[in-house]
Amino acid sequence: MTHAALEYMSGLPEWMAGFKQAAGGANLVGFFDCQGGPAKGVKSIMRIPSNKKSRTWPKMDESKGQPDHARLEKA
Fold it and tell me: pTM to 2 decimals?
């Protein structure tokens, strides 16, 4: 899962499938899904775009304190 993405966000499974497909030829150990908080300042930067949808994502962020123990176990 991408950092700060809502776990129930529509479209997320398709995004993840696309990322995995794009990395298909890379020499990777593996993939895991785990929600985590964005780096400091990222939410401020996300409020800048002129695209209204992009500006709403920081307001929807539920990732504070993530990944928690349950999500790490799931990953």
Answer: 0.44
